[in-house]
Amino acid sequence: MISASLEDYLEFIHNTILEKKEIKAIDISKAFNISRPSVSEALIRLADMDLIIYEGRKGIKITKKGIEQAKKTVKKHQILSDFFVEILMIDKQTAEKNACKIEHVIDDEIIEKMKKYKESKLKNNEQS
Amino acid sequence: MISASLEDYLEFIHNTILEKKEIKAIDISKAFNISRPSVSEALIRLADMDLIIYEGRKGIKITKKGIEQAKKTVKKHQILSDFFVEILMIDKQTAEKNACKIEHVIDDEIIEKMKKYKESKLKNNEQS
DNA sequence: ATAAAAAGTAAGGAGTACCTAACAATGATA
DNA sequence: TATCATTGTTAGGTACTCCTTACTTTTTAT
Predict the structure, then answer these.
(1) Contact with chain A for residue B85, Cβ under 8 A
(2) Which residues from B are below 8 Å from A110, CB to CB?
(3) What is the pTM of this model?
């Protein structure tokens, strides 16, 4: 199993590549406020797990497997955050912060139920 | 901050004392499937944090501070599990398993909203 | 072109949470 | 009472995730 930290980094790598086409180790260092050596280490671990291809200064590429993994996390994050905001009326910031932590431990089953619950709730509101 | 593991052990200590009046290190070892030395170590850390009083074979006592802490966790656990079962229709076992993990990372604010949401939902069902 | 800044790596350290093997103390029992 | 099982501790080890300090490599700017 991938750890919460590594999952966070992978998620960030994925999102950043989508947004800006590329990412460097230093970006992760800045985003998470961790030292450059810690990033190096984390990237080596992600590469060991075949989630990224890391060739030092030559750049960071995300593998197919890494994209799958990252997408799963992003989806969980999104559904959690939306559920908190739209159903529980939590403020956006708190919702995001908590989604970031819960996404690493919650089962897919609950995520799916949250999604369906939200969808049916919104449908009901349209009708009224 | 207390770690998820220590919080689990403290929760178990609290629940067991309520149920059976006393608890021994070996009970924790069996309950969580961790070695006796690991339990020793964890109990020393909990004692360092003034959450328990640990005097080896003389027994484990939970402090006032420890009870507060444990109660908070138990409450979070209960509300999460109930919310999953009653609102999201998750099966009891999955609900419990996930509550065990999420209770360590979720903010009080969301727990309170979950509780209120569930209460108002149940009230509405009574009326209909 | 060279000096300085930026980015990355290597080496070594710390804390947490586990482990096993071996030992000590306590308790039960034959 | 002597022995054996149970419980707990000590010592030493692993893996993870972070750190700092001190390098090297690359890029940038003068």
Answers:
(1) no
(2) 84, 88, 90, 94, 98
(3) 0.91
